[in-house]
Amino acid sequence: MLKWLLGTILGVFLGILFYFISYLGVFKPVDILEKQVGPLQLIYKNHVGPYHKIVAALNEVEKWAKDNHISCERTFGEFLDNPNTVEEGRLRANVGCVIEAHPSDEPIPQLPEGWTSRAVPIKKYVTVEYEGSPGIGPLRVYPKVTDYFDAKHATIAGPVIEIYKIISDKAMVTTYLFPLE
For the chain, which residues make up each domain, given as ranges? Predict the structure, then answer.
């Protein structure tokens, strides 16, 4: 009886663990493509510190965009430093919205002090679209893309951009853009 109870508890625990891991996207494929992307119109603020702590800055930019009637269906992080070589507290990123056309093609309202708006021209990137947790995505995507660049004897030619789009309450897609020379 005790073995049966322990076996059931272990089975339920493993089932829940498998579901949770699967839900986060651990088993999702990482399909790498080379393609042209852009132009992208960005509004953003600077973030200094751990990359996994950009959410507050993203929320601030999203709120400003909403308050100013600017569509911000896609947010982004542009990661300027390599976390393997730069101290976590000194990592720099640009964090904000990929904006679509503003209503009536009016100019963008005055940005808060220290924020920036810029266009990223069309450019060739190594891209990955990953549906799953943005916390798990980098653990799956970056090693595979590093292997891809190593196999091609190429290097990433600038900051990596991650574009986040919420599909539903339970689904999110992150598009990773690794610039090519």
Answer: 36-179
